[in-house]
Hints:
Elements: H1 7-16, H2 29-47, H3 50-57, E1 60-62, E2 65-67, H4 72-81, H5 100-113, H6 115-134, H7 137-149, E3 153-157, E4 173-176, E5 182-192, E6 202-208, E7 221-226, E8 237-242, E9 253-258, E10 264-269, H8 275-311, H9 330-362, H10 366-401, H11 404-407, H12 413-420, H13 430-441, H14 446-466, H15 469-497, H16 501-506, H17 508-530, H18 535-547, H19 552-559
Parallel strand pairs: 3-6
Antiparallel strand pairs: 1-2, 4-5, 5-9, 5-10, 6-7, 7-10, 8-9
Helix pairs in contact: 1-9, 2-5, 5-6, 5-8, 5-9, 6-7, 6-8, 8-9, 8-10, 8-12, 9-10, 9-17, 9-18, 10-12, 10-13, 10-17, 13-17, 14-15, 14-17, 15-17, 15-18, 15-19, 17-18, 17-19
The structure holds flavin-adenine dinucleotide.
Amino acid sequence: VTYQAPLQDIRHVLEFAGLGQTWQSGMDSDLVDSVLREAARFAEDRIAPLNAIGDRVGSRLVDGTVVTPPGWKETYRDWSEAGWNSLSVPEALEGHGLPALIQAACTEIWNSASMAFALAPLLTAGAIDALAHHASDELKAAYLPKLVSGEWTGTMNLTEPQAGSDLSAVRTRAIRQSDGTYRIKGQKIFITYGDHDLSDNIVHLVLARLPDAPKGTAGISLFLVPRALPDGARNDVYCHSLEHKLGIHASPTCTMVFGDGEGAVGWLVGEENRGLNCMFTMMNSARLAIGIQGVGIAERAYQQALDYARTRQQGKAGGSPEPGPIILHPDIRRTLLLMRSKTMAARCICYATAAALDQAGRAEDERERALGGELASLLTPIAKAYSTDIGCEVAHLGLQVHGGMGFVEETGAAQHLRDSRIAPIYEGTNGIQAIDLVARKLPRSEAALGMILAEARALSDEIERRGGARSEKLAGRLAHVADCLEQATQYMRDMQKAGRDEDMLAGAGPLLELFGVCIGLSGLTRLHNARRGDEEMEDLAVFFANHVAVHAGALAETAMAGAIPHIRLP
Length: 570
Ligand SMILES: Cc1cc2nc3c(=O)[nH]c(=O)nc-3n(C[C@H](O)[C@H](O)[C@H](O)COP(=O)(O)OP(=O)(O)OC[C@H]3O[C@@H](n4cnc5c(N)ncnc54)[C@H](O)[C@@H]3O)c2cc1C
């Protein structure tokens, strides 16, 4: 198999996440089904078959221009001509105006088919968001239409050799010109799709510093720097080299040089020295999309492992006198259920985040919009970090199911593991997401946290009322996870109030995981509840409770263990 979009699972989770709420108006069931079916068809027939070639051939730098692997260019052209690039772009910007929730489902499908392919539009979407919110009307008119249609792509230029997680160290310079433009000079590294042959222009969004800017993040501005200038001339920006890397070989990771000559011509986006604010618009939508990459790669790895486990004959299992497929062995079944239940849990979290974004942007009632915004902001770091960790873990387990055939490249299981590994690193490492969660989001999210805890407890009561040993166990685990989360979040608040940042930050990672476990288990339980009689949904919820959520107490203890000692050298 290459890939088959799991439309039924996606449909269930869309309903769980609130498709059909008032703010999703206009989304009738037939429209949702037809969008998903068409996305699945394109992904399965056109994108998924390119994934292995992309890995083997990779993007190459030829005579100063990046050349993508065979088939990439034509597929990107057909994909954007079919309108997929503008699915959730507002109608006012000539997009299709569909909810973020439907976009989330399609983003998952593109990423399962090929993470390296899906990255180009993922960055374009972020650029559209940032420009739509912060650019002048002139810039919007000049650049948005072709970004929305996908004729041009967007990039995000933050990182420099000395400025990775810490963007206050950005050194790229911007010099004001008398005509209102700026000249940009500097070097950016690790720029995804910084150059390529998929489109005839690339719109770079670049963080840079004015000569008189204050130090630190308060002195960073955002500029739009196109590869081709409005008169068609080539701007002073080029790709100096490509990184050789562990995975996503087809996605070019470029070292970009701005202003080797006179300086690259750029236009200010938003206000001077407020660039990081504008960039955050782009980064938040991109962070959810990266979380969805985790779901996508996990789904692909699971499908492949399941297929292998059904066909690989080895050993006798289940009392059979003859050798049978390895799927009959309890350890392989446990592994596959771990893969599947974690993938579904991550899907629930990411789609719930997208639904919260829709609520924030589309609900009529102001209070509902505010609550949606608070929920989306709390959930975004969890969706990014928990789901990308799951992407790696599931890809790793998928390789193990293949035995030796997983370690050799022929089956493709190894590619999923290699590709998955970048997602916990870029768009803010998962460590940085955890800090964002405890230090910034948690103190401002009392109502959202209350909703998460209340939902887990209400589901626990509901399941308990059904009776039976399995339901009681599931109900007990849910209630326990909610108690653990409440205790650990209270600890973080206490530490922050007491100014004990070291104690708080040391437990940030385990707290983020505990959040993921709680929301994931609630999601799986809600799916099981909504689909009575669907034994597989019950199996997934109970399995996740017994094999994953069972560690909630340990996660809470680790989250509250306090400051980490400094490394003592011998
Ligand atoms: C394939 C690829 C594609 C990329 N695409 C882009 C792109 O398109 N645009 C772009 O601008 N960048 C891009 N990046 C850069 C990426 O976003 C950075 O690599 C990432 O933000 C981490 O920065 P760094 O590599 O400098 O690591 P560092 O910041 O040096 O971090 C190293 C380690 O220290 C930890 N750490 C750092 N600071 C703290 C702290 N304050 N508290 C606790 N822990 C900390 C980190 O979590 C990490 O584990 C890409 C990178 C790669 C590899």
